[in-house]
Amino acid sequence: MTKSPSASPDFSVREFFQRFPDEDACLEHIMAVRFGGTRFDCPKCGTVESTFHKLQKRRTYVCASCGHHVNPTAGTILENTRTPLVSWFYAIYLFCTTRHGVSGKELQRQLGVTYKTAYRIGQQIRDLMSKAQGFDALLTGHIELDEAYVGGRRSDGKRGRGAPGKTIVMGLAEREGRMRAVVIPDVKKNTLRDVVLQNVEAGATVSTDELYSYNLLTFDGYSHGAVKHGRKEYVWYDYQRGENFHVNTVEGFWKLFKASVRSTHVQISGKHMQRYLDEFTFRASNRHRVNGMFDLLVGAL
């Protein structure tokens, strides 16, 4: 079975291409992730642990018992692609190892394809990240909530919440765990409540800032604590509940996300904002395992 990239921070591009040097190595890895390898029960003849051999010059494996064809890329974004699988795998590798995202121009330079192809590959990988996160259960434990405003600029060139064209986003972070973020139309009570109910397990502990709309959470069964940023309060310890209430984790995520947008993508339209949020939250949720990120994305094909 082909090994996927190491979770080591020293994993190099050279090591990546040693493990995925050609089309066959990539196909073998997809077979391993999707079917457990090249020996499995044939869906046509029923042979137990039948051996499947690859056909030359085709992305197809054949059952040794009955000749049944299995295409590991069938039904995926790779099914009819003319871009080499090594390029796709390298693009996925780049998305898994970066902190600040990968722009279409960067993919164009790295893969040697047209900008149109690079942009399409990037968006489809972001869709895979979104799909992979769809398998996750509700957030549990102590959850931090915070909304942010992304994009837009005032006529004087300065940034700020009052600038037009901004997209409102809401982040939800487990302490030392998973991260989610969604685009929201406003910061009204019902909007924030719906996001929390859809993503956070009932009875969880929730930290927020002093935004009035969050006051509803206690009535929905959550253990709610708020820090008052207006009073320069950033951490509040509740001795009765034995909990530290703050939103530093999710605020740190927004700081990284906004800096990445400015430096890597320059700007992101509201139309595509959710894709980029899913990209960054996928990496944040799986930040301790590059190896696991890579396999999750291949499995999500």
From TrEMBL:
Q: Which residues form the ISXO2-like transposase domain?
A: 138-285
In terms of InterPro entries, this protein maps to: IS1016-like_transposase, Tnp_ISXO2-like, Transposase_Zn_ribbon, Znf_TFIIS
Q: What is this protein called?
A: IS1595 family transposase
| Keywords from the UniProt entry | Metal-binding, Zinc, Zinc-finger
Q: Which domain of life is it from?
A: Bacteria
This protein's species is Aurantiacibacter aquimixticola
Query: Any idea where the TFIIS-type domain is?
Result: 40-72
BP terms from Gene Ontology: DNA-templated transcription
Q: Which GO molecular function annotation, any one, does this entry have?
A: nucleic acid binding
Do you know which NCBIfam families this protein is assigned to?
A: transpos_IS1595
